[in-house]
Amino acid sequence: MTHTSTRHSKKPINGLFLVGFMGSGKTSVGQVLSQRLGWNFVDLDARIEVRQGCSITEIFRNLGESGFRRGEHEALLELLREMKASPAVAALGGGAFVQAENFRLLKASGVPAVFLDAPAEELWERCRLEKHRPLAQNLNQFRQLYESRRPLYMKAALRIETSGEDAETIADEIRVQLGLTCQRKEK
Ligand code: S3P
């Protein structure tokens, strides 16, 4: 597994964001990592669904992508307020980190973002049979969106190459790279 780090701060870490394209494993890695660290786990998409009382697919259908992005931004503001009080591992939907206003807020929060990376073809294989991702239409469209966003994901503090790795291995790699201590006994 390879990683690239641009994190220089020695300040203690009181949370982290998992970012990256659809299918990169943000939710599964986030769940494992939060257990290891004894931190809360927040999935921003799940929170948006609870806040709006309908699924991501329905939000896209009823309000379009711009309506979804507004709800996503509001949910992120709420999450950032909460993370000041208690540390959390937060998995952000694939578009959240690349919206300019969100990026500015995330950067200003000082909470590191970790980019889970994998080739577009592998991500597509993980997503193509699922029905809940309105922005995963076909391989060409998926790859173009991935390529347009990748330079922005690369602005995260740490990049982890996840190809062929399981969630436990990736979670441990992030923990080691960020110097975070395990709070619970590993099985
Ligand atoms: C999106 C990714 C999805 C979800 C929404 C939009 C995107 O989350 O937020 O469908 O813009 O890439 P996942 O990355 O968890 O699939």
Q: Can you give a write-up of this model?
A:
- The chain has 187 residues and is α/β, with parallel strands linked by helices.
- α2 crosses α3.
- The mean pLDDT is 93.
- The chain has seven helices and six strands.
- Strands 1-6-5-2-4-3 form a six-stranded mixed beta sheet.
- The protein binds shikimate-3-phosphate (S3P).
Low-confidence stretches: none
The ordered H/E elements are EEHEHHEHEHHEH
Strand content: 5-15%
| Helical amount | 40-55%
Topology, number of strands:
6
- Tally the helices: 7
- The overall number of domains is 1
CATH architectural label? 3-Layer(aba) Sandwich
Largest sheet, spatial ordering of strands: 1-6-5-2-4-3
CATH superfamily: P-loop containing nucleotide triphosphate hydrolases
For the terminal residues, how far apart are their CA atoms? 22 Å
The overall average pLDDT, rounded, is 93
Q: Output the CATH class name.
A: Alpha Beta
Are any ligands bound, and if so which? Answer: shikimate-3-phosphate
Sheet bearing the most strands, described? 6 strands, mixed
Radius of gyration: 16 Å
